[in-house]
Amino acid sequence: MKRMITLTFNLLLISLFVACQPNEKADNRPNILWIVADDLGTDLGCYGEELVHTPNLDGLAAESQKYTNFFTVSAVCSPSRSTLITGMYPQSINSHQHRTQFRSPLPGHVAPVTHHFREAGYFTCNASFENWDKPGKEDYNFFADSLFDGTNWNQRTEGQPFFAQIQIHYPHRDFKRDPTHPVDPAKVKVPPYYPDHPVSRQDWALYLEFIQLLDVEVGKVLQKLEEDGLAENTIVFFFGDQGRPHVRAKQFMYDGGIQTPLMIRFPDKAKAGTVEPNVTSNLDLAATALNLAGIAVPDYMQGKPFLGENAQPRKYVFSGRDRRDETVDRIRAVRSNQFKYIRNFYPEKPYTQFNFYKKHAYPVLTLMQVLHKRGELTPDQAKFMAETKPYEELYDIQNDPWELNNLAEDSAYAEKMVEMRAQLDIWLEESDKGKYPEAPKEIEFAQQHAKEFFPIQMKNKRGLAADISDEEFLEYWEKVLTPTVKEISLD
To answer: What is the number of other CB atoms lying within 10 angstroms of the CB of residue 402?
Structure first.
C-alpha cells in the first residue's frame, strides 16, 4: 500500500512537472508584425519609382512576397484602420464616417483581432515608431477598451508569441525634407491630372523625400527585430493605411487614394522575391494574420485569408467614401484586376467641396483652383474641378492607369458595366449597413470644428489669414516650396 501511495505521488509530481513546461507548439507559433505607414502610395524603388532612395524597403521587398494590386477599403485613415483591426467593412460596423465624434461600441458579435490573438495566448502591442513606450496611432471609429496589452514586444512573458503594430506617421502631410537625398523637382513625373508646374513638381518631390525618411524608420524597426533575436520567427507585414496624400488621391476612389504597397516576409524567406498581381484588400489582413498564426478565423469576419491553409483569392475588392471631416459625400467603388467602377451617390456635388484640411495642406489644390479660373487646365485636369460629377464611372486600368477616360457611357463596355454594377449592388446589399443620412449632430460638430480650427491652423502654421484669396495662397506656396538643399558631409 505504501509503495502504491509513493508511486502515485511520484506520478503526480511528474504530471505536474510536464504540465508546467512551456507548450512547445505555442512557443513555436510565429510572431506577427504589422509595420503601418500613413498615406503611402506605391512610390517606392521596389515598385518602380526611380527617383526615390528606399534601400530598406527595397531590401524587405526582395525577401518578401510583394503585392502589386493591394487596395484599402477607404482612402482615409480612420475607416481604413477600423477595418484593419476588425476584418470588417467600415460600413458594416458604423465606422465609415471619418473622425466620428459620438462613437459607439462595435456590434456585439464583432471583436478586434487583438482579442482573438489574446485568447490564443499571444501578447498584443501597438507602438509609435518615435517612442516604443507610447502607443501608436489608434484612429478607430468605434469605442473599445483594452485593444492591446502593451506597446513593446519586450513587455511580454518570455517565450510568449506576439502580435505587434508599429505605426509610422510618414509620409502624412506636412512633408519633411530629406537633405541627405534631395529629390530634383525637375526630374519628377507628375500625374497628367496635375498641372506641370513648379508647385506640383516640388510638392511631389517633397512627398518622395518624406518616403525616404519613412524608409529610414522601417530600417530601424527591422534592426530592432534582429537585435532582439526575433526575426527568425516573425512574419513581417509592411503596408500603408491608404494611398497618396495628394489631390484626387486621398479621400477618393481612384487608385492613387486606395492603392498602397504590401510586402509579407516569412521567417524562412518563403516566397522571397515573388510578386502577387491579383487584387487584394486590407479587409483580409486580420483574417490572414490569424490564419498564419494557426488561429481560427471567426465566422462573422468579412475578411478572408489570402495566405495559408484555405486561402481565398478575390476577384473583386470594394472601397467607399463617406463624410470626410466636414465634407459630406458618398462614393462606392469595385475594382477587378483590370476595371474600376465608381458610383457617386451625390453627383450634384463637386469633387472639390471645401475641406479645411485639404485647403490648408494641399498646395496643388490651390494651384488647380487658380488655373481653373484662368482656363489654363487641360481637359483631363479640369474634370476634377467641375461643379458636378458623373453618377457612374468606369475605367480600364490596364489601358488607362491614370483613370482619365470614363467608359461608363461607351456602348462597347455595356456588358462590363452590367457586371460591375451587379457586383457593387450585391456588396451594397450584403455589407453597406451605414445609416444615411448621418445623424445631424455629427455633421454639425464636424462643420463647427472646421469653422473654428481652420483659421487657427492657417495662422499658426502658415502665418496667413483664413480669408486669403486663392491667388495670394498660391503666391505663398510658390515662395515656401523650394528645392531641398543637400547636406554637405564634413567627413
So the answer is: 15
